[in-house]
Design a protein that fits this description.
It contains 3 helices and 2 strands; from the N terminus they run αββαα. Strand 1 and strand 2 form a beta hairpin. By secondary structure, the protein is of the alpha+beta class. It has a two-stranded antiparallel ribbon with strand order 1-2.
């Protein structure tokens, strides 16, 4: 994601009260973004919604486990992308 797009996204999240921005105590040049309670609640709600949709698509337990393993593998592969 381009730096300018990320800055716009961060500003929108701050404006909505989902994220707060502060300067790092040890290095005032560094910004630290963290979720607010509202942000944590929003993320938790979204994860619950995703999990419900995931379970409605995959009704077989073995199929669900296999899909979860594949997603974990995909996430691990994506973590190597700079």
């Amino acid at each position: 994601m381009a730096k300018s797009n990320l800055a716009l996204l961060a500003k929108k999240c701050i404006d909505e009260g989902l994220v707060e921005k502060a300067k790092r105590a040890g290095d005032r040049r560094t910004l630290v973004y963290s979720l607010t309670e509202k942000g944590r609640s929003t993320v938790d709600s979204l994860l619950e919604e995703i999990e419900k949709k995931f379970s409605t698509v995959l009704t077989d337990e073995n199929e669900g486990k296999k899909a979860a393993e594949m997603l974990d593998s995909a996430i691990e592969l994506l973590s190597y992308i700079p």
